[in-house]
Design brief:
Chains A, B: Its main location: nucleus. 2 copies of one chain form a homodimer. Chain A has 229 residues and is α+β, with helices and mostly antiparallel strands. Chain A has 5 helices and 10 strands. Chain A binds a DNA duplex (21 and 21 nucleotides) through α2.
Chain lengths: 229, 229
DNA sequence: TTGTCGGCGGAAGGCCGACAA
DNA sequence: TTGTCGGCCTTCCGCCGACAA
């Protein structure tokens, strides 16, 4: 999807959107004789993040074999904040109020010699879609705001007060934005076509078929609904 | 969902939204030793219609046994039209232009002694949700239009030029509205969580399990994607 | 007959500082 | 410091008849 440096940022964005307790383990997988390999994703409609884990049955019986894939360290430093949205933040009346601490730590520096310093921020969400925001420092007393572009983001992501806005900057200056919802958007399909029962049976059959024929299969791991499978 | 007379209308609405070639057969089911019984539905998001068919394995071996359920005749007459939406119909600039023939045949009569005769139409969609439209006969030359309320319907149903608007009136004066799309809305889940493979396997297992244990099971029949199952 | 347009009035969007919690 | 509000300007919505295909 992106050049090398960007992948780190997407992975960090995924972590931020999923929440601190939702890291996907990849070492213990070996205990069940499945060499790991997973990919982080997000739903198109809700931006709900999930992990797709590709599993292949293995005859390797040593669960203590160190896993080279997980031993890599992140190479760059990240600057990020998460803010719970106020009523004003999500209202169509105005923009987004950036807390001073967040602005100082995470937003690119403004030229403070100007009367009303302003800049355009261009950030990508977890799908790689670009979002533009006007960042301005104005008012009395002075404050940081996101104005033009913010309301489109709120509408497109269907954000309401209580949801959280995720912002991330890499050392190289690349920006990412994301969303963490207070109440997940209900999927239209969950109530109609796809029965949980059918899915569960399908997964079981797929897994056993995979073991018998020694072929690969895929599991989707959704932080919000871990207990389903 | 509704009192008796309304059910007929919903069934007719389902037929109109699915298209003339999409009637759900219910006689030949017997040939496969499944006493029939189905219910028409529509997806919450796209209004795509489908049929949910409940099947129970049967030891009855006479395929020619007449089916009493399908021999009933509809009791009331329906007045309906389907119009392909023009660019103007779906534009936010104005309302919906009702073809004269359609207005004469299907819309409730206006009081033509008025200068600009108008009335409010209240119609339910396939979910039972009410939609209100202002119907007015005005302009030079005179024409039938749906104005206030129409744009909300277009936005909510995500209609674009080329899609079709379905209108239905029963003898009792009850009104129904529906939608038939040129290009189906792609479901966000179809590209992510739910794999066709898992669904297919789930259905097969459910069916064989049903036969073995002689219990009921359910199949969803979607006119647009008959070939999937 | 009916699709599209210009005109226009009103509602909502959205940028601003004021102010108080 | 920052959530909310009144003010005000602009954009877009949406109802109208005109007009031509």
């Amino acid at each position: 999807m992106e050049d090398g440096a960007g992948d780190d940022l997407y992975q960090e964005l995924w972590r931020l959107c999923a929440g601190p307790l939702m890291d996907v383990p990849c070492v213990q997988d070996r205990v069940f004789h499945f060499p790991p390999g997973h990919i982080e994703l997000a739903e198109m409609e809700s931006d709900e993040v999930y992990a797709r884990i590709t599993l292949q049955p293995s005859s390797d019986t040593d669960p203590l074999d160190p896993n080279p894939i997980c031993s890599e360290k992140p190479k760059q430093k990240f600057y990020s904040f998460i803010k719970t949205l106020s009523t004003s933040d999500t209202s169509t009346h105005g923009g987004f109020s950036v807390l001073r601490k967040h602005a100082n730590e995470c937003l690119p520096q403004l030229d403070m010699t100007m009367e009303n310093p302003t800049q355009e921020l261009v950030a990508k969400d977890i799908h790689g879609v670009e979002w533009k925001f006007k960042h301005i420092y104005r008012g009395h007393p002075k404050r940081h705001l996101l104005t033009t572009g913010w309301s489109s983001f709120v509408a497109a992501k269907k954000l309401v007060a209580g949801d959280s806005f995720v912002f991330l900057r890499g050392e190289n200056g690349q920006l990412r934005v994301g969303v963490r919802r207070l109440n997940p958007l209900q999927s239209p399909t969950s109530s109609s076509v796809v029965s949980t029962q059918n899915m569960r049976l399908g997964v079981i059959v797929t897994a056993s078929h995979s073991v018998m024929t020694n072929t690969m299969f895929v599991v989707c791991y959704k932080p919000r609904f871990v207990s389903i499978f």
